[in-house]
Amino acid sequence: MDVDIWAWVGDTQRQLQEAGDAGLAIALGDLPAQAYEGRYAQLDVVAPAVAGQAETLELPWLEFYARYWHLVGRIGDRAQGAVALGDAEELLAFAQREDVRDCPSALAAVEALAVAQANADGPGHAADRLRLVGEALSGVEPGALPFCGLTTQYVMALLDSGRPGEAVAYAESAIERLRAADNDASWELAAAAARALLAADRAEDALGALEAASGLKPDDPINRPHREGVLRALVLGTLGRTSEAVEALPDLDVVGDHPHSFVEWSRAVHVLAGSSQIANTWQLGRVLRQWIDYFAMMGGYRARVELALIAGDLAIARQGVWQARYLADIAESGLAELKEEQVGELPARIAKLRRDADATTPPEAPGPLAERVGIFDAADGSKADPERWVEWLTPLAGDDLEGTRRLTTTLGFLGYPSRGADIYWTMMVEGESAPGTPDDEDIAILANLLIEARQDERLEQFAARLPEGQRHLTLARLHRARERWEETLAEAEQALAAGAGLDARRLLSGSAQRLDQNTKGAQAIREVLDSPELEDEDVWRMIVMASSVEDWETVRLGAARLRMPVEGDSGPVEQEMGLIRVILPAPDGSQRQVISVRTGPATARLAMPQPPGMEFNAGDVVVFDPQLLEPVPDGAKEREEFIPPFAAVRMLRPGGYTSWFFDGAAPSEHDWAEFNEVLAERGWPMWVYSDENYTVSHPTSGDRLPGVFGWVAVPPEVGPTEVDALLDDATERWVHPLAWLDLAREVGIEVERHERIVKEYGL
């Protein structure tokens, strides 16, 4: 997007603020940052809300803007494919409406659809992408808003259609046209040109193109560093410059958060895996297996097959024969989701992987077959290679119960739960020696494997064979995994009634909490509070639910079980137990950390005043989840200063406080201390939101003065006139006056004076 669209965004924000829609104005400006910075939980809430408000306000450009950035957050770094195609097609149709098509960013919908198609199956959609993007580019000049983005997609479509030479020529021609128009290419376009050069067996030129692009501005500045590192590593690795490539390659803990780079990073690792500088381990195999599953869920069909083949080759290099064969099966099954005429060399690569697996000898087992379970149990878990143990335990599958248990759980751990489920199903359900009633442990193992493999129908068939208690318990586990809370609660209650025990109670209490049936959930745990099998986590959940319904007797019983001292024998638990940070949601979808006073095991009173428009304020009492969100620091000084953070669960009792804003030049330390003391005497919470960088303008000299702004919160019995009078008395002797314009307007006292202060000091 260029200045036209950003100018429109700024104008729209001002109009919304003037109309009283400050929250919508703020959210509008933050959507691109949410998409690029990976704040997807926030984006997935805020963007649809903005689009809905825009539709209500009959602002189609605003609706398009919100829908576009939401889609970018899905198809960009998250690399969603087929699951986003429908929304991308709908956005393009929306952009072609008469009241939207003149929007400066309307052509971005074409680019978005091309990206979604490339994510799903780049070669399969290549012809459609070339037609779609080519038509859009026909009327776009090099200096126009969509030129670089559309050109990048055209180059990538040429690459996916197997025409790297044409892709190079097109990219270089576009870059020259931009230079002739006194414009630079985007970094993304330059990177596409480098990829085309690499595909055309011109790796040296690709490296030169990357180096020449170092000063270009990216469309996505947040994700450029790791994307550039991955591409550079691939090019350097192709050139045989291994040490430089390894140095350029971003770490797995960086790339692991960016699905857009999964395939290219894996290609780079594949190129470099033969060197001693890249560790080709079972951990790498497990990560690649997770990525394969990710693309299966997101409809990244081509990426899924490509990753399976890369992972298979790497498994062969580790002598992981069983894994290579299974990955070949995954790749072959993925061919059915690609356009048949565009599968290219994939069948030949799959066949080669199978031949390589047949020609590879697995590592020698550590002992006789009869002793392997014992050797497995005695192995050092931090050093053992689970991939090899799958190979060594497989001969025991179906014949040896303990060996089968270890084999299938290891398969599940490595990301192959469906394979483990097949083995266990044969043994527990279909085998000649299948038990009439499986052991509880075997039921749990098979159920977990089926749940992880998303074989829900098969799990239901298995549950139907079980005794009543285990049947309902197994179905409750399935519903919990799929977040069907009402069904979880119903099945857990039936399981408990049939004698299923503590696991049923845990499922019951957890689902009851989700459904806001806190009394029922707390009671399920309270009934067995003396059980030695009960864990602290169970007790804390009970305390949170009991606090939510102000069942203080149960809270005290739970605290006693945890050996946590609580004052009093009855009535509300209200005592000061130190400061904590309570994490609460803000209206724009972000989160706020609010300093609070802990008043009970799971309750706190907010101590920081909040701006108007928030759904909470100082004086409110909230229930929080007592699970720490950050680890306690190791250092003594850091521990002493550490204020533990906890997630808010619900509002318990609103305090009814009202906040008033103040702003101005900072007073002397003495005056500020007196000001704080006056407010503290009245119990009015105050919080300064400005930092040391905040300055205001001297009204006569124009010099910068240290500034201060914040909020004062007052309880419901204190009226605005009383607040105005106190602030006036407390600050009347200050060298520079303080302004509280909103409060002055509310009470109608000295409004002009406060307006003058705001203007003279540039507040």
TrEMBL record:
Protein name: Tetratricopeptide repeat protein
Species per Swiss-Prot/TrEMBL record: Spongiactinospora rosea
Organismal lineage: Bacteria, Bacillati, Actinomycetota, Actinomycetes, Streptosporangiales
